[in-house]
Design brief:
Length: 115
């Protein structure tokens, strides 16, 4: 476990325990690297998610595209970003969600963009 000096506030540490916790979620997301799985996800998201025996919390987070919650549940951001390629979800929206900010505020404050 990281000590207080190495922790980022409100940022879950992706350690062994979180990796084990999020195994099914991460497996589901990694499998989206295959075209046939992306198509299955787009065609019937519920059926695709059911293949992985995800918890109700995990399913709800994926369906809501709640990136912060997926990470909290053990999702590795590099894996769950594969979900964003299906919608597609702009990376800045995911960044805003991770920062707990509204998208427009994120663009202004973090990227210096006028909206």
């Amino acid at each position: 476990m990281a000590d207080a000096a190495t922790q980022i506030p409100e940022t879950p540490l992706f350690d062994r325990a979180r990796s084990i916790q999020g195994y099914k979620l991460n497996k589901m997301a990694m499998d989206l690297g295959k075209p046939e799985n992306r198509e299955a996800f787009k065609t019937d998201e519920d059926a695709y998610l059911a293949r992985y025996s995800l918890t109700d919390e995990e399913v709800a987070a994926v369906k809501a595209r709640d990136w912060h919650e997926m990470v909290r549940l053990g999702g590795n951001l590099f894996f769950i970003l594969k979900i964003s390629a299906i919608d597609p979800t702009p990376m800045t929206r995911i960044g805003a969600a991770q920062a707990g900010m509204e998208h427009d505020d994120f663009l202004r404050q973090r990227l210096g963009k006028a909206v």
